[in-house]
Write a structure and sequence with these properties.
mainly alpha
Length: 205
């Protein structure tokens, strides 16, 4: 009886191999031949699962977003407002070993995403999902009186997105100044400046 091949499982194995190569040596090491060898496949066998290198790299890039979202989702269903926003950012920021590995892969993608339409589209789609979540949490924070009514939510999202991206780069280039404590301090400072002073006064009284 012929062996049943789980196509999705094989695709995951190939993406895992791509991740390992990217984390070790960046894009230069992620040739189709090297990916096949890392995954234990014949070179030509990859095309059964990914039509070209671009589609494989896009799948590897989406993996980073999926892992982050899965971690955050475990906690976000019980949170809202600024607390939920902080949770999401804490999963995106490179606070632990797993997130630093993800940052290494994501940063390697950025330069190539500017030139490759498929990678660019994958990055844009992922970013828009996170921006939509941030917007929802900030709307909740406004409804709950956590932030001042005149806070420009789109500006805040731009600031947070830039902060998160910057931390992913700096954790690789300047790890001694990008410690988890300092990353969270910067995030908490930004979120703290959003709070409505009049609401805080009301709580104290």
């Amino acid at each position: 009886m012929p062996k049943i091949v789980d196509r999705d499982e094989r695709r995951e194995l190939i993406v895992d191999a791509t991740w390992r190569l990217l984390a070790r040596g960046g894009f230069g090491s992620a040739t189709m031949r090297e990916i096949a060898a890392e995954a234990g496949f014949a070179h030509g066998a990859l095309q059964r699962y990914f039509p070209n290198k671009e589609s494989l790299l896009a799948a590897a890039f989406v993996r980073a977003h999926s892992r982050t979202s899965a971690r955050a989702e475990e906690r976000l269903h019980t949170e809202r407002g600024l607390r939920a926003l902080r949770t999401l950012c804490a999963e995106i920021m490179p606070l632990g070993e797993e997130q630093v590995r993800e940052a290494r892969v994501v940063v390697a993608f950025w330069d190539h995403a500017v030139q490759d339409p498929e990678l660019w589209a994958a990055h844009r789609a992922n970013t828009l999902v996170w921006r939509a979540q941030m917007s929802l949490f900030l709307d909740q924070a406004r409804e709950d009186g956590e932030i001042a009514p005149d806070v420009d939510i789109e500006v805040v999202i731009d600031q947070i997105t830039s902060l998160n991206a910057g931390r992913q780069i700096m954790c690789l280039l300047m790890p001694e100044t990008t410690t988890p404590a300092r990353q969270l301090a910067a995030l908490d400072d930004l979120l703290g400046r959003l709070r409505d002073p009049s609401a805080a006064s009301g709580r104290r009284s």
